[in-house]
Amino acid sequence: MMTMTKQTLSHLDWLEAEAIHIMREVAGQCERPVLLFSGGKDSICMLRIAEKAFRPGKFPFPLMHIDTGHNYQEVVDFRDKRAAELGERLIVRSVEDSMKRGTVVLKTPDESRNKHQAVTLLEAIAEFEFDCCIGGARRDEEKARAKERVMSFRDEFGSWDPKNQRPELWSLYNARVHRGENIRAFPISNWTEMDVWQYIEREQLELPTIYFAHTRPVVMRQGAIVPVNVPLANGEVLNQPKAGEAIIDLEVRFRTVGDIPCTAPVISDADTVEKIVIETATTTITERGATRLDDQTSEASMEQRKKEGYF
Amino acid sequence: MSAHENIQDNGLLRFMTCGSVDDGKSTLIGRLLYDTKTILVDTLNAIEKTSKKRGMEAVDLSLLTDGLQAEREQGITIDVAYRYFSTGTRKYIIADAPGHEQYTRNMVTAASTADLAIILIDARKGVLTQTRRHSYLAHLVNIPHIVVAVNKMDLIDFDQAKFDAIVADYKAFIAKMGLFADGRDIQFIPMSALNGDNLVDRSEVMSWYQGPTLLELLETAPSAHAGRSEAFRFPVQFVCRPQDSANPDLHDYRGFQGRIESGAVKVGDLLAALPNGRESRVKAVQIGGVDIGEGVTEQSVTILLEDEIDISRGDMLVKAGEQPAQQKEIDAMLCWLSETPLSPARTYLIRHTTRTSKAKLTGVAFKVDVNSQEHVDATTLAMNDIAKVGFKLAQPLFADPYSVNRATGAFIVIDESNNNTVGAGMIV
Question: Is A12-194+300-307 a domain of CATH 1.10.8.60?
């Protein structure tokens, strides 16, 4: 009996089904994949998708975080807790170890370590011989990402060549690589910030607390809100105010979570997922425009970092 | 359930725009994004700044989609860009492909996932060579819905007679070429993207047009599979066997994981596993280990069968009595995507659903001139060429004609030396 299709999947169901399909293609095509999990909202969605794709089995890949050493403690704690709850293996590789090896050299001690994650990531790929890294990047985040493939080829130096990408047609993904090369797979390429928040709401996903409105000391620096005096687990205090800067207590939340020196919060009183969904629907500033200090250096800075092996 | 989930969700529509910058394609996309409040203030400020820097008076909305450094430097679009917007009831993915002849492969790429194509015609120029090319490619890749947008009506004084003449011209052209002869949904809209006439808001100056606006068409276009009677096709991606789990209930668990490419499946259905043809009834349909009873088209599910059958990635579950042909020789329309020409001497890989097979070209029947649709003799193909070809395969494919099923009729060709995707094929 042929079946008449009457039912249309809701947009979230469709996006979820596509993401599951992509993750299973990675599992089916690649020998040693890994899922990058930072504890951020996009990678939290990715874990739920992996559960829907592979349960009751275990994930056919470990989780990995490239830790800059400058992440919010709440997020690091959440990362460890979530991996333990899922019973999945979590690998952590640290930029600070790359600094000790001398493969990462900072220009200044307080420089953002965000772009240096690329070096540590490539070292981890070599160490574990990963042939595919699954990441939570989305095309709506940034212009260079808008032209990224779902399965994006990287040569043995981890480089992305935007002018020479593999054509990607239908849902026939090509994750084939030779030894030393790798694929970056992006199952939620077609999701927007709004989709992510709606999915978090629908699936009732738990998030690190810094995504919700809270009061913290900040200074205003070049138009951005910069959190100051952020304590790290090792006792260090990051982002000390500069001379002459006035510290104020503001009610803020983070829209993206990354390396502390390059991530700024936004003013918000949204303390529930539902309020954040409403705020996301009415905001006038883009996700990265508001909050990523590293993307504003030049119009092409994301593209530049990606060419160098960044996610 | 929260407040915004009460709004009816009309799913997701993927569409593409065919045209050049001169046709106002970027203006059209920019308008859709702007009028649906997708472009935010900081993005608009950034492109305003760049437009001014280049000495332009108006904001150049093409800067929104041209994301790569080389594209911005050269002022051209090189690659397909994907943009997103939502109306609250439906989510949209726009594939914006450059329209020039040398980018045929990009158009085919964008078309491969599109449910609807907007073909732009400049009202002053009417049906041009590029209109024919875009229409042929939309026809070839079998996009279910076609919207012919006659743009820049403001520049021909919103003249109904001129619009009617272009529509008649276009209809004559597709009838002559045999395009969209399968009764596909084709709509014509007189439009001014610059002023927003008939895009989101109804045009007051063109009251003679009583049809839907572009956004109304997008909002109501049925999704690709809706209302169609389709056979169940389930290519197996991955097999879930959690034997080593601590839970003894799972020791015999064998879940076949994949996406329902067409049709539907429910508990009790009698399925056949290809290639071995063995049959068994569906014991459960699950997502993430949770029973859902039945699965529908485009859903990614796990299927459990009552009997133990050897099934692995590359196999396909279908309904008993609805088997597709098992083919070791195929005829196909092939678009060549690589700078290295197709070699009749070499062995390639063909990826079809989740199955990969070695393949060799058996011959090129003819090449198609994308501008005139004339058939030309050829023995090999260069980048952007489209041809009817034959392949023989080492492993059989479980294939339907592309015109019947896009998912089980499509394949890609892979060059094993560098693993590049070099061809896109549609089984005839």
Answer: no
